[in-house]
Amino acid sequence: MIQEIIAFGILFISIAFLIRKFFWKPKKKKGDCGENDCGCH
User: Fold this and answer.
1) What is the pLDDT of residues 1-41, one digit of tens each?
2) CA atoms of 22 and 34, how far apart (whole Å)
3) Residue 7 CB neighbours (<10 A)
4) Does the model's pTM come out above 0.90?
């Protein structure tokens, strides 16, 4: 029982991390390409 809770918790955290990493990036890249080299070229 405790092992299942821990396993599902780790799975949920890893999925949330991947979603945050891949799907929340485009918001930042729209207006942040001014004077710094942010990899937009």
Assistant:
1) 999 999 999 999 999 999 888 877 655 555 555 566 556 55
2) 23
3) 10
4) no
**Nearest of 12, 9, 37, 38 to residue 25 by alpha carbon:** 38
Residue found under tokens 């207006």: 31
E strand map for 1-41: none
Secondary structure class of 8 (helix, strand, coil): helix
Q: What is the DSSP string of 1-41?
A: -HHHHHHHHHHHHHHHHHHHHHHSSHHHHTT--SSS--S--
The structure tokens listed for 5 are: 């809770």
Name the residue type at position 3: Q
